[in-house]
Amino acid sequence: MKIINWTLLFIAAFFCCFDSVKANPLRQDTIRDVTYQLYPLGVACRDNDMATIKRLLAGKDEPMAMGNDFYEFDIFYTAIYFDKEDVLKYALTRYKDINNRLYSDEYGLTLLTYACKLSNVKLARILLEHGIDVNGYQSPYDTYKVYPIMEAIANNNIELVKLLLEYHADLNIKDSNGNTPLALAKEIGAKEVEDLLLQWKEQQKNNANNAG
């Protein structure tokens, strides 16, 4: 009887391991209250497995990295999602269309807007150094008007706001509520950011007067 019980336990353990191996390409991670199904590229991205990433991106067609019931996301979005600097840098050498990538989730995010939404100064800087549009991209069909600098202000991240200003972020834009960057800073009580924006606008005014 003991031999039979041990045999049954061994068989059960074997099939559990087998099922976990089969499920590995579809591993799920719950981060920021959203569950995404990771495809092989997404798993490699999360694990910073550069050899696998290079192999998967070597083909003619670009594979997706992760998705859910409604959306699928590429290597750029996934690199920002998992805060993977090396992955993002490699993707930037592989694909040059970063200003044409608009993510059809509920926000209509661009890559820079997404980095700012996550308050990631490091990745935002890398994107800006590679020529991404500092103001994001808004099509006339977007439900929401989401801009990088508005996300940086909403997070009260003055370092990120400074970075965007250095790349000449537009301070006259308005979000879907009609707020300018300065109005948003006042609304949320981000006094340090508000002071920075006022100084920046004054400097721009002086520069314009001196140029005239």
Automatic annotation (TrEMBL):
Keywords: ANK repeat, Repeat, Signal
ANK repeat start-end pairs: 107-139, 144-176
Top-rank lineage group of the source organism: Bacteria
Annotated signal sequence range: 1-23
Gene3D superfamilies (alphabetical): Ankyrin repeat-containing domain
Alphabetized InterPro entries for the sequence: Ankyrin_rpt, Ankyrin_rpt-contain_sf
Keyword Transmembrane helix carried by entry: no
Entries under PANTHER family matching the protein: ANKYRIN REPEAT AND PROTEIN KINASE DOMAIN-CONTAINING PROTEIN, ANKYRIN REPEAT-CONTAINING PROTEIN-RELATED
Protein name stated in the entry: Ankyrin repeat protein
Organism: Alistipes putredinis DSM 17216
